[in-house]
Amino acid sequence: MDIYFLKSDIFLKQLNEAIFFKYKNEKKEACSKRQNEYALGRFLVHFILEHYFYINNPQILIKNKKPYIDTKEVCFNISHTKNIIAAAFDTDEIGFDIEFMKDRDFSKINERYGIAKSTNEKESFYSFWTDYEAQIKLQQQSCSSFSSRFNTNYWLSIKSARNIDIEKELHVYEITFCKDGNIKRELRDFNLLKNIRQQHPPQP
């Protein structure tokens, strides 16, 4: 299981305009920010599928509002939040969500959602919320789950249709630019995922 991510501010400045507009014009959004997120998400998935899964000219389809490709080789799920575009890839169905952790009045929010009180209400909320979103995006019963702080200010959750130890199988790559302008992937140390939380039991 792999997560690939890129920093949107860097890619909006450096990505070849012709490549960017190819994906930007696939779908019209009322908000330019959402248009950019859509385009970068599509670029990321196409780039990974072509360069690391060796799928030539992958065609992304939509079923029940979930993107997929017509092959049994790989499944993926996209998520984006403040300055991060990310996608999770696996051999079976996967649900994935990442959120920037804003400061809010979490005591009232957590009470509304029935989240148990804790010493860190902010983390409790984002663990709950990303887990909830990932389950919706999986669109079936989950067999394994994982939830963690990511890169200090973000929280992510993964739901898998496979019964696996996600923490042990997970690899995280950042997509970056080389000095010559080419694009590459860099494996990030697992310490990038700070304050690892326990694996959750499968949902009934």
Can you walk through the features of this model?
With 204 residues, this protein is of the alpha+beta class. The protein is 32% helix and 30% strand. It has one domain. It contains six helices and ten strands, in the order βαααβββββααββαββ. It has a five-stranded mixed beta sheet with strand order 4-5-1-9-10. Helix 2 (17-24) crosses helix 3 (32-51) and helix 4 (106-113) crosses helix 5. The radius of gyration is 17 Å and the shape is globular. The model is unreliable at 196-204 (pLDDT under 50).
Which helices and strands occur, and which strands form pairs?
Elements: E1 2-7, H1 8-14, H2 17-24, H3 32-51, E2 60-63, E3 66-69, E4 75-81, E5 84-90, E6 94-100, H4 106-113, H5 121-138, E7 144-150, E8 154-160, H6 166-169, E9 171-177, E10 183-188
Helix pairs in contact: 2-3, 4-5
